[in-house]
Amino acid sequence: MPVPDRAGLKIVHIDVKDIRFPTSLGGHGSDALHTDPNYSCAYVTITLENGKQGYGLTFTCGRGTEVVVFTIRALKKFVLGKNAADIFADFAGFWRAITNDSQMRWIGPEKGAVHLAVAAILNSLWDLWARLENKPLWRLLVDMEPEELVSTIDFRYITDVITKEEAIKLLKSKQASKKERVKYLLENGYPAYTTQVGWLGYSDELVKQLCNKYLNLGFTHFKVKVGLNFEDDYRRCSAVRKHIGEDKFLMVDANQAWGVNEAIEWMKKLAPLKPMWIEEPTSPDDVLGHAAISQALKPYGIGVATGEMCANRVMFKQFLQSGGMQFCQIDSARIGGVNEILAVYLMAEKLNVKVCPHAGGVGLCEMVQHLQYWDFASLSGTMEGRLIEYVDQQHEHFYDPCIVENARYIAPKLPGYSTQFLPETLQKYAYPNGSEWQRMFEEGLFSPPDEAELANA
Amino acid sequence: MPVPDRAGLKIVHIDVKDIRFPTSLGGHGSDALHTDPNYSCAYVTITLENGKQGYGLTFTCGRGTEVVVFTIRALKKFVLGKNAADIFADFAGFWRAITNDSQMRWIGPEKGAVHLAVAAILNSLWDLWARLENKPLWRLLVDMEPEELVSTIDFRYITDVITKEEAIKLLKSKQASKKERVKYLLENGYPAYTTQVGWLGYSDELVKQLCNKYLNLGFTHFKVKVGLNFEDDYRRCSAVRKHIGEDKFLMVDANQAWGVNEAIEWMKKLAPLKPMWIEEPTSPDDVLGHAAISQALKPYGIGVATGEMCANRVMFKQFLQSGGMQFCQIDSARIGGVNEILAVYLMAEKLNVKVCPHAGGVGLCEMVQHLQYWDFASLSGTMEGRLIEYVDQQHEHFYDPCIVENARYIAPKLPGYSTQFLPETLQKYAYPNGSEWQRMFEEGLFSPPDEAELANA
């Protein structure tokens, strides 16, 4: 995979938009700590001198999107005027420059709003690269030589777990059989699980209907939100277990609701319902807490899953090292783009932890399918115990939405990273000036935007 | 300490300013990763209906301050219109509300730019409370009943190390002897160490001059920056050791320059110079890495110090639990204000780790003296092995600057948290429109501000 020729690849424009969907109106996506999310994103469009564009986004939950959008504006200076070919030729160097500016790193480093902003920019650059090569992102990654793929990763702070040389060796060991697995993916897709049977805001009747719906669609793994009230959790999980039967899989997700000891006690009491994992039992920063919970729940056959709010590769490294994570739920837009995500996959492979990406929200399903496809073809070489989360929301806004059939993600075929919005979505849901938002403000469905939210408009 | 009466205490205005000092021009503050900082801050002024004001800041390094300023604007909605007395009456509840808004927490949570923004706001509220009580902040804290002080803390995610009840018990055990220690503080101050003998940008001759200067001022503890080049480090540290003699203390600070194994190897080779601690040997997020380094260096008598970039109380909890931190360097403006800092002090006391606050930058010395005074009077009851960092820069901009005499911080006496700027500082150093910045732009000393930096002006 040669880096593209430099001609015409100067980055001449970066546009960023605050896009919000009024999902709180339907109670979709509600969990123990995020009771009323408006699924949103900061959406970046990068334009080259030759007119070609790359599209990238970072998922957000409504309020706060304005901060990520503003931060992207503050990061433009690290990208504008550069030649995209030069970025791809030393992608790790570019990554280090944008994440570790000597002054700006103080306000991270490599975490929170700035890292979300970096993710949107990096995602747009990977989308651009794939488009320039006329390939879906997963094929771009799969077709790279191991040395080339690894050259995009900054190994600072992780060499005690994996070095560049070890990473290359892991990838080389799977090179010979790569083609067969690509063929398998194209013919069979990749297994998905559903999170849509048990959001906290849903009624019992709706839970039952949804179990039946997703069983009929071929799903075998069902995730339920828990954490606010034990009796309610037990009742809803029992109902799901009854509806799906003993041969299917139940996962539960507390979205950080508990302290460490509380998590252990709560889950011991849910153990008779045989959940396969407990997701986000406590603070996403608590490596030692997750390790303690993992150890306590191991005798009950319950694994710990986390990652959607894991700040960066250094935090992932510790979750993987400590035994605090049996299922590694990378998110495609929280850590610093594909470059840093590849580092996490490589560490997970080295330490024998299964990656089951976080998805849902806005565009996350679209992105993670590419990553997991690459993992199967080039790195882990197996789907055993691995699944991609699937939530059937917000896909209609994308030019190249993910397709899930018979509970499997079908191979993306169009060039890029699948996150380009349709023009009418931008026109309707740009916040606060899109036509749908203007209508909803007028109808009193939402309070008008505040000073900061107006500043990016 | 009764919460003040509500009359006139409605918060009617919040102002936030981007204040930057051109410290990069002199090489002050340069270290392995922050090679050219312009010491800066986001500066908040909160105004009550009765006209009284509170002042708070969060330290930054130049670029990126605009993001923190913007984030403070986005957080105004959680503060404006509230009555300050109601906030103080349920300070933990207010803290939870501003740090864990159901939508906004996604862009943190409790870390990075949003948490720095929260810190500036919370610091201004504590300054305001102390002013309303007509006391310096440390006296406000010392005079609080244990139950009242603890009521300001959110214990979520830390109860596996300390509960509210244990915290009250720790404080109660020191109540009887508090008055004596207050008297001692007023008469003797609190010991300081200097970081000013060995910034990386300084010449050998300057290092020697500064050692002599600070020895003459009575200092016994000297910190030197390391991490870029071993030979250079060894030479400079040897020189400092020679100048200060064997009876004084040398600390070294790598500012996150190394990987875990590299840190261990580098420090073993510096061990003959008897450094008391190695500060920030690796990523500030790497709890397990710091624990490994601590264990490896223990036989050499070298402790590990870290904290200035530790994201929140959950990260501090783990550093304290794991043995990864022998010196806990809380920062007054990175984590969520005094409320969260108190939680860290309480955990450190419970787990027998010494707190030696990070200071320097802008306003950090002014703030941490109050915290450490409180710790001695009300919590640890000892100064043994504890010191406050001191850097003699940017104090002249404050209305009530810290005073260090004979290498000891003298008790602050004016009401508040000591971080109110003088009017001429705001006029000169507001970025980018202050008179000094306008002059420096005209003289070509700095590039003009970018789009985002202009947006808050």
From TrEMBL, chains A, B:
<dbReference type="Pfam" id="PF13378">
    <property type="entry name" value="MR_MLE_C"/>
</dbReference>
<dbReference type="GO" id="GO:0009063">
    <property type="term" value="P:amino acid catabolic process"/>
</dbReference>
<keyword id="KW-0456">Lyase</keyword>
<keyword id="KW-0460">Magnesium</keyword>
<dbReference type="InterPro" id="IPR034610">
    <property type="entry name" value="L-fuconate_dehydratase"/>
</dbReference>
<feature type="domain" description="Mandelate racemase/muconate lactonizing enzyme C-terminal">
    <location>
        <begin position="204"/>
        <end position="300"/>
    </location>
</feature>
<dbReference type="GO" id="GO:0016052">
    <property type="term" value="P:carbohydrate catabolic process"/>
</dbReference>
<dbReference type="InterPro" id="IPR018110">
    <property type="entry name" value="Mandel_Rmase/mucon_lact_enz_CS"/>
</dbReference>
<protein>
    <recommendedName>
        <fullName>Mitochondrial enolase superfamily member 1</fullName>
        <ecNumber>4.2.1.68</ecNumber>
    </recommendedName>
</protein>
<dbReference type="InterPro" id="IPR046945">
    <property type="entry name" value="RHMD-like"/>
</dbReference>
<dbReference type="Pfam" id="PF02746">
    <property type="entry name" value="MR_MLE_N"/>
</dbReference>
<dbReference type="InterPro" id="IPR013342">
    <property type="entry name" value="Mandelate_racemase_C"/>
</dbReference>
<dbReference type="InterPro" id="IPR013341">
    <property type="entry name" value="Mandelate_racemase_N_dom"/>
</dbReference>
<dbReference type="GO" id="GO:0000287">
    <property type="term" value="F:magnesium ion binding"/>
</dbReference>
<dbReference type="InterPro" id="IPR029065">
    <property type="entry name" value="Enolase_C-like"/>
</dbReference>
<dbReference type="GO" id="GO:0050023">
    <property type="term" value="F:L-fuconate dehydratase activity"/>
</dbReference>
<keyword id="KW-0479">Metal-binding</keyword>
<comment type="similarity">
    <text>Belongs to the mandelate racemase/muconate lactonizing enzyme family. ENOSF1 subfamily.</text>
</comment>
<dbReference type="InterPro" id="IPR029017">
    <property type="entry name" value="Enolase-like_N"/>
</dbReference>
<dbReference type="InterPro" id="IPR036849">
    <property type="entry name" value="Enolase-like_C_sf"/>
</dbReference>
